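A.,

Following up on our hallway conversation. Structure tokens first:
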């Protein structure tokens, strides 16, 4: 992981919104806490996507089609993460609650570090820096980070009882 590049206020805001799983006493409490944390992560990922699109727009005349495709691919990865962050359903910790909480806390910490790295990588692609070097060195790393983030988000969903099958259960209840 690279050195901190997310601002102190962004990092502290995200950390303040981290769930306290012991407070998940009711389904409503759990859903509310999850919504707050997921929105905070989503906001920072949205900032990453917005920055990528802004750079693509400002440098459109000098970006190759491969570079534009890379940006599109990165945006698609962020979109998949949003779909996973938007998963709804009844939050119900799976397995042994204490062990699940420890695993969730570890995942949350890793996700925050990945957001920090993603924001740092995206911010390295500034409008006044040659884009070619960023695409050669950082784009693949960002893509891998976003893929790992997506997988961890899905793992987190599973531990919270929000696996993909929850989408079917939710529809049945409507």
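Then the amino acids I'd put at each of the 174 positions:
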């Amino acid at each position: 992981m690279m050195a901190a590049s997310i601002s102190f206020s962004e990092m502290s805001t995200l950390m303040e919104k981290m769930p306290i799983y012991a407070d998940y006493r009711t389904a409503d409490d759990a859903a509310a806490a999850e919504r707050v944390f997921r929105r905070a992560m989503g906001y920072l990922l949205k900032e990453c996507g917005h920055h990528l699109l802004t750079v693509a727009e400002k440098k459109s005349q000098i970006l190759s089609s491969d570079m534009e495709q890379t940006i599109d691919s990165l945006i698609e990865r962020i979109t998949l993460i949003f779909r996973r962050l938007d998963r709804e359903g009844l939050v119900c910790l799976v397995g042994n609650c204490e062990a699940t909480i420890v695993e969730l806390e570890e995942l949350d910490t890793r996700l925050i570090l990945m957001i920090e790295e993603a924001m740092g990588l995206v911010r390295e692609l500034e409008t006044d820096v040659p884009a070619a070097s960023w695409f050669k060195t950082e784009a693949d790393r960002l893509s891998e980070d976003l893929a790992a983030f997506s997988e961890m988000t899905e793992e987190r969903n599973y531990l919270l009882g929000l696996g993909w099958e929850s989408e079917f259960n939710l529809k049945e209840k409507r």
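The chain has a mean pLDDT of 85. Curious whether your intuition agrees with the design.

B.
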